[in-house]
Amino acid sequence: MRPDAKPEGLRQAMSWLHTWSGLVLGWLLFAVFLLGTLSFARTEITAWMQPEVHGSRAGPDTLRLTMDTLERIAPAATVWSISLPGPRDPAVRVSWREPGAAAGRAGLKRAVLDAGTGEVLEPRATRGGDFLYRFHFELYGMPQIWARWIVGAATLFMLVAIVSGVITHKKIFTDFFTFRPRKGQRSWLDGHNATAVLALPFNFVITFSGLLLLMYQLMPWPIEAAYQGDTRAYFAERRAPAAPVQVPEHDAPVLAPPRAALQSILDETAAAWPDSSVGSLTVNRPGGHAVTVEAREGQGASLVDRGIARRAVFDAASGARLDAPAAAAPTAAVAVYNVFTSAHLGRFAGPALRWLLFLSGMVGSFMVASGMVLWVVKRLPERRKLGRTPKGHRLVEATNVAALAGLFLAIAVYFWMNRLLPASLAGRADWEIRGFFAAWALSLAYACLRTHRRAWIDTLALSAGLLMLLPALNAATGGAALPASIAHGLWSVAAFDLSAFAMGALLAFMAFKLSRSGLSPASGPQRKLASSAAVNDALAVGSTNAGARP
User: What pTM, to 2 d.p., does this model score?
Assistant: First the structure.
């Protein structure tokens, strides 16, 4: 119902819903979307943030050297787990469980090995890409269940904004092919529409599948009712553990698979998986003697089984393949759930598809950001009539600077802290994260103290400089320099450096365009709001208040 009591049409009602559902949690949604996008490369981010592993080079004896090291450092372990090096991570990462160790991850011991020598490396402590990944759906510094509820609510608002946006824009597909530069609100709306349509399938699937991933926290009551509160029984039944493998007995047990057995395992898997490779090995060693070796391919390709990699089980002594019962096919409901959630996680994706997911995520992030800026632009006429900036609008302006440009600054500082903090510093992983939040908080304080346009320019310029200098920082602090990483095929590190420079260059271009917008820092409130440049470029709106410095 409109203020004049006349009924609204569907499009008008959806326009109101689209505007306010996007504003209420838009800043959180941008962080969720941007950090979720970076999470597609979290393995590469972690590898870059551990320069000690950049010199690791895989060779034909990598697996044998790894086994020799495990025999030396974990001779009594009941299981050895080995993640072999690949394009995304150059090092060998191993874990093992000692007799009597606690169940789950808490009972595992871990080490990182040089793929070329088998020697134990001592990479610096860091949360790496896992911090960005966890933050995008669990936030930080609060109970996990509450954080997931907050992110779930924001995701639901995002879904509402997507659906209501499609209904509101009756010419949305026509507008996709229309862009009118330097037209103020019209230009921002064109950009918002274009990015919304371009990434519409991706945005819808990512948002809807995000809700599916959180549904066990958001809607636990059906499972609790059906299983009388025993949720573990539900997940145990859903996973349906595979039947045990029949293992032949040997007169002379071995500590580790012999060289001939390992070669036989590699040859067998290469023949069985011609389009893939072995990504990890698990050596089961009850009593400290190797019995079976389970090989898993590098990544699964099927969305129906949620990208679960194929596996093959071998006799540790001879390398002969053992009969392993096939995993049960998922039900129709589970298959649909797996397809959506697998698309969200992206673990099945190869390099090309992973880049496509990353670029789609960046387009989606820009869609959210442009919507937040558009909210400010649409209210310029009202502010011109008032001759001042209402406090609520000023709050949105300052928060936009911090939530959008300030987040890039926080990410850049997170990477710089990784290299500038001493490698031996106690609790250094926590200090990296503190640096992230300190930079983010300072960007908000700066946006409150400076004019809107000046805060945008300075925050974007500083973020751009820090990101563009990351390749040089990497080379200067023990990492593989960009020419060396390209020459040695260390694409995880090279891709990080190139992507950071490209993102910094884009932010620098934005800061440059703002600096050329022509607004006078000394202009008063009336003049700033009436300026045509302020209308032409939303980010250059020179809103002021009594405490803002030019």
Answer: 0.86
